[in-house]
């Protein structure tokens, strides 16, 4: 079983993810990313999907035209885990390219 992050680990991880917000109700992190158009948004989602599949950890997300809303939580852990932080960092790396 995957362990959820402790309060201290969660706070430290969130400090390193300034573009993400903590959803306390779901013990998750969220981020909205806006692109120039649908094609760019879909290309981003495709890149994230390939990484998520390799990690065997998949985001909850929604795409409306040029916007992608992302929510990361680990259902098996009942909240935020290191897997979510890893995926968020990978997403941030894509955004920084």
From TrEMBL:
It comes from the Bacteria. GO terms for molecular function: 4-alpha-hydroxytetrahydrobiopterin dehydratase activity. Its EC number is 4.2.1.96. CDD domains: PCD_DCoH_subfamily_b. It catalyses: (4aS,6R)-4a-hydroxy-L-erythro-5,6,7,8-tetrahydrobiopterin = (6R)-L-erythro-6,7-dihydrobiopterin + H2O. It is an enzyme of class 4 (lyase). Keywords: Lyase. GO terms for biological process: tetrahydrobiopterin biosynthetic process. InterPro entries: PCD_sf, Pterin_deHydtase. Belongs to the pterin-4-alpha-carbinolamine dehydratase family. This is Putative pterin-4-alpha-carbinolamine dehydratase. It comes from Sphingomonas carotinifaciens.
């Amino acid at each position: 079983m995957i362990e959820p992050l402790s309060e201290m680990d969660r706070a430290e991880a969130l400090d390193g993810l300034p573009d993400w917000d903590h959803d306390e109700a779901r013990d998750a992190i969220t981020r909205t990313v806006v692109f120039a158009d649908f094609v760019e948004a879909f290309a981003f989602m495709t890149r994230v999907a390939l990484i998520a599949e390799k990690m065997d950890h998949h985001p909850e997300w929604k795409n409306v035209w040029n916007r992608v809303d992302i929510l990361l939580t680990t259902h098996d852990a009942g909240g935020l885990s290191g897997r979510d932080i890893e995926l968020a960092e990978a997403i941030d790396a894509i955004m920084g390219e």
